[in-house]
Amino acid sequence: SENPVLQTLRAEAQETEAKILALEVTRERFESGDDGRITGNIGATFTLQDKGSKRVLTRTLILSEELGSRLDAITDASPVGQEVINARVGSVITVEVKGKPITFTVQQIAFDALEGIAAD
Q1: Dist CA 120 CA 37 (whole Å)
Q2: Helices (H) and strands (E) in the chain — how many of each?
Q3: 54-96 pLDDT per residue, tens
Q4: Are 84 and 95 in contact (CB under 8 A)?
Q5: Residue 46 to residues 2, 69, 73, 99, 119: CA-CA distances in angstroms?
Q6: Residue 101 pLDDT grade (very low, low, confident, very high; cuts 50, 70, 90)
Q7: Which band of pLDDT confidence, cut at 50, 70 and 90, is reported for residue 36?
Q8: DSSP conformation class of 23
Q9: What pTM does this model have?
Q10: For 74, phi and psi rounded to 5 degrees?
Q11: Host H or E run for residue 27
Q12: Which of 10, 47, 54, 68 has the most crowded Cβ, counting Cβ within 10 A?
């Protein structure tokens, strides 16, 4: 039987390796995709505040071919998705919805592998 301390250290090492891999994947998201599309924030979860109504939305940015039946997501092909794909915390974006402009402030961007990065 293996020493319990050694088992704990091995489990922690595996967890650290998984975090490193997740961070590498996140870094790759900031580079161009194989098909030439910019995929900077694909997979990120955004917290957006409507500047007019102050309503807060939280949505995950995904590729349009991944949408399926997800209601908590926006795609890279949607007007909001096109604006947030390379957004940063604090960015102000304006999109047209049903013929009316709506302005959002990006309050937070979070990747599964990273903690949320919040606006100051």
Answers
A1: 30
A2: 2, 6
A3: 999 898 888 777 766 667 788 888 888 888 888 888 999 999 8
A4: no
A5: 44, 19, 10, 23, 12
A6: very high
A7: very low
A8: H
A9: 0.57
A10: -125, 150
A11: helix 4-29
A12: 47
Query: How many angstroms separate the CA atoms of 79 and 66, rounded?
Result: 17
The tokens describing 75, both together, are 């795609």
* AA letter at 85: I
Place of tokens 């580079």: 31
Is the distance from CB of 75 to CB of 62 less than 8 angstroms?
yes
Please tell me the predicted confidence (pLDDT) of residue 104.
93
Tokens of 112: 């599964």
Task: Specify the pLDDT at position 116.
Answer: 43
* Residues 5-19 pLDDT 10s: 988 998 888 888 877
Dist. CA 70–CA 85, nearest whole Å: 18
Which single residue is written with the structure tokens 């967890």?
15
